[in-house]
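re: ur question from earlier - yeah i can do the single chain one, its not a big deal. heres the input i used so u can compare w yours
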Amino acid sequence: MSIKTKIILVVLPLLVSSMVITATISSFSARSGITRIAISFMSFKSEELLNYADNQWNLLVSNGLSEEDIYVDAAKKAIQSYAASIVKSKTELIFALDEDSNVVLTTSEFKLGIEEKSALFTYQKEGVSGWQSMKINQRNRVGYGFFFEPFGWYILVTEDEEAFYKESRDILERTAVVLAATILVSIILLIYFSGFLTRPMTKIVLAMKKIIVTSDMSGRVPVEYKDEIGALAQTFNIMAGELDKAYKQIKQFAFENVIAKRNEHKIRNIFEKYVPKNVITSIFKNPEGMLVGEMRLMVILFTDIRGFTTISEEYRPDELVSNLNRYFEIIVDIITSHNNGIVDKYIGDAAMAFFGAPDARSDDTLQAVYAALEIQEALSIFNAELIAEGRKPFKTGVGLNRGLVTIGNMGSEKKMDYTIIGDPVNLASRLEGQTKEYHEEVIFSESVNLKIIGKLPSRMLDIIQVKGQTKGVKIFTSKLSLTPVEKKGWGYHETAIKLYYKRDFLRAAKYFMGVKKLMPNDYISGVYIDRCKKYIKKAPPSDWNGVEVKTSK
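and the output i got, formated as tokens:
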């Protein structure tokens, strides 16, 4: 919306409203004055007619003729003649009704309808006198009504309502015409003067649009007035000059920025093959911060192919590299699809990944376990293809741990890695090594299990002290879903584990046998059955805590 329009929309309502209010007050005052005069005039006629009728009656009474019908009729005719004499227009009507609402006097012939007669009869009975409205011959009328007791008449001096208020309506119509003309002239003048005031600003706008379209900063506007608008034009000319200088600098900066962006794009394309995309993005956002290590709670994942040395003997070097690349592509795709997990490094046929950096999320642990389980599902398809080719499958173990680690860019100026270090990393690697011993595809620590309770089924396998650790840790496994038999078997296993660590080996053995009966191929229940039999024959020492010490990685 233009300033010109805004000026009109602001000023016009104020102007129009003031004129409308003034005209309305004036017209209504005039109408009220005329109406009062008209009413007073009709009231005067009514009083004159009443006085004349009283004089006629007094003549009859003073001469003792009030009982003589012939003289009474003459008096009535005289009153009718007088009434006719005071009627000044064709629309005026004076009439009188007797006690039965019959017309006994009239200055003009008319007929009363039933409803009209009923309304007048009501006025008579209720003794209504003074100014009133009525309907005669289906037209609205106004007038004065009064009683003349000697004859029992109810006399009405009336005027057609439309004729009565004609002068008032004429005043309103003339006022409306004058008001409309005044408003029209005001609008024309307002449009002209608002355009006169805003013309310099319009020139400024046109100059700015030209600059936008052509990028030509040489345009200037004339300074027409020595006021705020003139100051605006002068300021615009100064600004345009400064912008012209700045624009030339910006073009130079933009050119340099394009070159820098192209270089950055090339760097990204090269390094995304070696460093995760989100890490590169973080480095570009805060290059200084990425050189500083930080402590962070993270989830570490290790994978390793069991018996890879034996498997590799069956392949030519190029075939081995090709299949390894297919294998790692499966693992990497799954890890990066869960909360942007990062594959840190490849160690031969093993891979190390972590979740929770550079950006941590509340469900990093759960997503890491999902990734581990999905890796096993995806590899089952991959291994089926290898078996169909007559090759040995890549049986892979996955170990996970959650703990406080140091993360950052580590190395030297010549070679750096965005990686993590800390004892939790070592434990994750050790847990992956235990997958072979416990015949499980996925093993994770209690710190991981605490984060997936209620979201994924989990099964406690043992309490172990891995090589390089001084304390025992509980280890668990999981599946994406359980069959009804597995659900029942895992329930028995949970009960059996509790009894086992309470040294109730006899009852624990019964539950573990129940697990074995439900799941004949379950390795871990067989391990615990053997342990229970051993401890039933010879009880463990009093300081036994159930921790199995592992001497190998």
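The CA atoms of residues 128 and 145 lie 7 Å apart. not sure if urs matches, ping me
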